């Protein structure tokens, strides 16, 4: 029988349905009685996702306890909220605040709450010197573009949070918005490894100052960073990095992160699961205990292995890995969490590329008992507009003290010796490769170590990944 479409049937036709919005969807309910296995599964995901943000929260809390700009333990710049402090030379090997430090630049550090208290950060005239102010939100993504690669003009830049709605006073050169209220700044200014350049850089870095908007008067302020007081750090113990994420406390701190950090597009469902988890923790102490147990297990089974460079970024050739999505993580939780563990506070890919390895060309663990050669063929040093370096780290990703007080070699060094064919061979190992090669030698500790290349403001070979780092060969 044929069906006849009439006006009557049209009148009762269903209206076209639109896809539901997230607000229309059912949400997890704390009234359920979940089994421990399910709670563990969600808790593990929450721990991996939230690890970098709890890390940032705890760094902020510790650093901003400083009553004034100072050096914690005499080595780490610290300052009250809304301010920063600068070093006046390379960072010392005794610091344990952040892994994989750099000895090509003079660092600064400051933490802010930019919705509560916007901050003015000064940019002096750096001339031809490479510099960049890396500004990080609570996710460890960079925001803003202040630095030599961006042609930033000297002046006063206002750092504001996503919800700040105040007036911008006259005299402000530009406004830079963070996606989260909690943020920090890590200025980096290149310095040659010479006494002359150490002296030349001082007037410039003394004008790198940050302060609350209420203190802005349109005049460039200066601070002699070589005269900072020292404050103690009783929490530092051992040779490893300060434990910024404590598994047993993680789920007590996660609610603060969920409240302070708005979800990225598509993260609404994750937030719903994690908020459900927090409700379950309040309702059922036994399941809260399960979550803590899972946090401890995840720290050991998932987070700790990120210290192996093969788990960071992607292969770069010749046994090295290279950074991926650094400081522009988006929803790449794998690389965001891995880097927060192994080498936090990367620059953006266009600002810096990082290449690293634990192994020699044969795949064996690098060890100080051997001497290694790393040869850059003529014209094959990292192609950069800024500078490059090769750094050696011990098993904790820190500098190992040595008699030469040398931890890296590269653009900053004025006395490197080239081979007759124009190539450059650097050496790494506990024993000197010989007096004639000592200028090109980075001393290694006894036992395992890793090597790390930085390429600041890379050219195409760095940016597109076509440049490959050299093989690491055993000499003896």
What are the SSEs and their pairings?
Layout: H1 7-11, H2 36-63, E1 70-72, E2 76-78, E3 84-86, E4 105-113, E5 119-123, E6 131-137, E7 146-147, E8 155-160, E9 174-177, E10 182-190, H3 195-205, E11 210-212, E12 230-231, H4 247-260, H5 268-283, H6 285-303, E13 314-317, E14 320-322, H7 333-342, E15 352-357, E16 372-376, E17 388-394, E18 408-410, E19 424-429, E20 441-443, E21 449-456, H8 460-463, E22 472-474
Parallel strand pairs: 1-12, 8-9, 19-20
Antiparallel strand pairs: 1-2, 3-4, 4-10, 5-8, 5-11, 6-7, 6-10, 13-14, 14-15, 15-21, 16-19, 16-22, 17-18, 17-21
Helix pairs in contact: 2-4, 2-5, 2-6, 2-7, 4-5, 4-6, 5-6
Provide keyphrases for this structure.
globular; 476 residues; alpha+beta; single chain; six-stranded antiparallel sheet; 8 helices
Question: How would you describe this protein?
Answer:
This protein is α+β, with helices and mostly antiparallel strands and 476 residues long. It contains 8 helices and 22 strands. It has helices at 7-11, 36-63, 195-205, 247-260, 268-283, 285-303, 333-342, 460-463, and strands at 70-72, 76-78, 84-86, 105-113, 119-123, 131-137, 146-147, 155-160, 174-177, 182-190, 210-212, 230-231, 314-317, 320-322, 352-357, 372-376, 388-394, 408-410, 424-429, 441-443, 449-456, 472-474. Strands 13-14-15-21-17-18 form a 6-stranded antiparallel β-sheet, with no helix packed on it. The protein has a 5-stranded antiparallel β-sheet with strand order 3-4-10-6-7, with helices on one face. A 4-stranded mixed β-sheet has the order 9-8-5-11, with no helix packed on it. Strand 13 (314-317) and strand 14 (320-322) form a beta hairpin. The longest helix is centred in the N-terminal third of the chain and has 28 residues, at 36-63. The protein starts with 6 loop residues before the first helix and ends with a strand. The mean pLDDT is 95.
